C-alpha cells in the first residue's frame, strides 16, 4: 500500500506571530531577528523578499537591502507558545505526527482514504489550524516526505498542493536543484560547475556518477530527485532540553555584564521549565571567545526548576569556565535531562512562601509577558537584549525582585 504523507509549514512563522500580537503590522515589511550588526535574520515577511532579504542573512545586509522595514527582535517564548498551540491541534487530528521544527510538521495519513479523502481531510485540517490559531499555513500531500515538502514550498504562501501517485518525477523535473532538501549552497555550486541547474538533469544522470561526485549523499540526492524517499516519520516527542544564547554586538570582558546576561538567561529558562511542568537535572554553560574557540561545562544536579537553585550553579560554572581572560563573543545557558514534574519544597532550605512566591511571579509573567517580573541583577543594559523587554504595564516599570547570592 502506498503511503500518504502530509507536510505542513507555518508561513513566515515569526512574522505571523508578531502580526497576531500587533495587527498594525499586517501587509508591512517585517524582519525578525537579532537587531545588532552581528544579528541574523530569523524570519522575513514576503514584502521584504522583493528586496532580496531572506532568513539566515546577516542583519547588517538586510538593513542595507530593505532599510524601510520594521525590525523586531522577537521573543522565543511567545513563538514556542504559538507552536505548541498548533502542535496540540494537529496531534488531536492525525494518527502519527512528526514535528521537525518549531513551524514544520509531517503527518502520516496512510490508510485514511478508506474513510474519507486524504486531500479533503488535509484541506479541512489546514483550515482548522488557521481558524483556531490565526496563523497562515501551507500544506503539501504526496507519497513521501521529500515530495510533500517540495510541494508545500511550491504552494506557499498560505496555499495547498497535492501530487498524485505516479506524478512525482514530472512534478520535480522542471524545478531548480536547490529545491531538493539536502542540497545546500556548497552542493549547489558543485552542481553549477557540472552544468546542472534543474532536477530533470539529475534524474537522467547515472547513480554511479552521483556517488562518485558526492559520496553517500549522492545516492540520497539522486533518489530524492527521482521522487524516491522511504524515510519514516519519527513520532513527535517532547524536547529534552531548553537553551538560550547571546551574541554580543562587540566582544567584551566586562564580567559584570556577562554575569548579568547569564543570570537573566537562567531565570527566564527556569520560568519556561515551570510553565511547561518540567524539571532539569543537568545545567550547561557555554562561552565562545573572540577567536571563535568555544568551551562548555556542565554539572548534574538534583531535579529542580527553581531560580534560587539554578542561578548559583550557572554562576559557578561560569567562574570555572572563564579562565582565558580573553574577549568573549557569546555566552549561553542550557538545561537538559528534562522530566515532567513541578517544583517541590526542599525541607532544609525552602519555605512554603518560596513556592507561593514563584506561583505569584509566574502568574504575572503568563499574563503580562516573560519580563514583567525580573530579578534586580538582570536589569543591566547587557541583559535587556536577550528577550522581549517590552513593558506590559503602559509605561509603568516592571516588577523587580531583589535578591542576593549566597
From TrEMBL:
PROSITE patterns: UMUC
Binding-site residues for Mg(2+), renumbered to this chain: 9, 103
Enzyme Commission number, as recorded: 2.7.7.7
Necessary cofactors: Mg(2+)
Gene Ontology biological-process entries: DNA repair; DNA-templated DNA replication; error-prone translesion synthesis; SOS response
Cofactor note: Binds 2 magnesium ions per subunit.
GO molecular function: damaged DNA binding; DNA-directed DNA polymerase activity; magnesium ion binding
Domain UmuC, chain residue ranges per copy: 5-184
TM region(s), chain numbering: none
Active site, UniProt feature: 104
Subunit structure: Monomer.
Designated name of the protein: DNA polymerase IV
Native organism: Cellulophaga tyrosinoxydans
Lineage: Bacteria, Pseudomonadati, Bacteroidota, Flavobacteriia, Flavobacteriales
Amino acid at each position: 500500500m502506498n503511503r500518504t504523507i502530509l507536510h505542513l509549514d507555518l508561513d513566515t512563522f515569526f512574522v505571523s506571530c508578531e502580526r497576531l500580537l500587533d495587527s498594525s503590522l499586517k501587509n508591512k515589511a517585517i524582519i525578525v531577528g537579532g537587531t545588532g550588526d552581528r544579528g541574523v535574520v530569523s524570519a522575513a515577511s514576503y514584502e521584504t523578499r522583493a528586496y532580496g532579504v531572506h532568513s539566515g542573512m546577516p542583519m547588517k545586509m538586510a538593513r542595507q537591502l530593505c532599510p524601510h522595514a520594521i525590525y523586531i527582535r522577537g521573543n522565543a517564548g511567545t513563538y514556542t507558545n504559538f507552536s505548541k498551540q498548533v502542535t496540540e491541534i494537529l496531534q488531536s487530528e492525525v494518527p502519527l505526527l512528526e514535528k521537525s521544527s518549531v513551524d514544520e510538521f509531517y503527518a502520516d495519513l496512510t490508510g485514511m482514504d478508506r474513510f474519507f479523502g486524504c486531500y479533503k481531510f488535509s484541506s479541512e485540517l489546514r483550515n482548522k489550524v488557521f481558524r483556531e490559531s490565526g496563523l497562515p499555513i501551507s500544506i503539501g500531500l504526496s507519497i513521501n516526505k521529500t515530495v510533500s515538502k517540495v510541494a508545500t514550498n511550491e504552494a506557499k504562501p498560505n496555499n495547498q498542493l497535492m501530487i498524485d501517485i505516479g506524478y512525482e518525477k514530472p512534478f520535480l523535473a522542471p524545478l531548480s536543484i536547490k529545491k531538493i532538501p539536502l542540497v545546500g549552497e556548497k552542493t549547489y555550486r558543485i552542481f553549477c560547475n557540472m552544468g546542472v541547474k534543474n532536477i530533470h538533469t539529475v534524474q537522467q544522470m547515472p547513480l554511479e556518477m552521483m556517488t562518485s561526485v558526492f559520496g553517500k549523499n549522492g545516492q540520497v540526492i539522486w533518489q530524492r530527485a527521482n521522487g524516491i524517499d522511504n524515510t519514516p516519520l519519527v513520532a513527535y516527542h517532547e524536547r529534552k532540553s531548553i537553551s538560550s544564547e547571546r551574541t554580543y554586538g562587540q566582544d567584551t570582558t566586562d564580567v559584570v555584564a556577562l554575569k548579568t546576561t547569564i543570570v537573566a538567561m537562567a531565570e527566564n529558562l527556569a520560568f519556561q521549565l515551570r510553565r511547561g511542568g518540567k524539571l532539569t537535572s543537568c545545567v550547561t554553560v557555554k562561552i565562545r571567545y573572540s577567536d571563535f574557540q568555544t568551551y562548555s561545562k556542565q554539572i548534574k544536579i538534583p531535579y529542580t526548576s527553581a531560580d534560587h537553585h539554578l542561578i548559583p550553579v550557572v554562576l559557578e560554572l561560569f567562574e570555572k569556565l572563564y579562565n582565558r581572560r580573553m574577549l568573549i563573543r557569546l555566552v549561553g545557558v542550557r538545561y537538559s535531562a528534562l522530566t515532567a514534574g513541578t517544583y517541590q519544597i526542599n525541607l532544609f532550605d525552602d519555605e512554603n512562601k518560596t513556592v507561593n512566591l514563584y506561583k505569584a511571579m509566574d502568574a504575572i509573567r503568563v499574563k503580562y509577558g516573560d519580563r514583567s517580573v525580573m530579578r534586580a541583577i538582570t536589569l543591566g543594559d547587557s541583559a535587556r537584549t536577550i528577550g522581549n523587554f517590552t513593558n506590559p504595564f503602559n509605561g509603568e516599570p516592571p516588577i523587580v525582585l531583589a535578591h542576593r547570592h549566597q
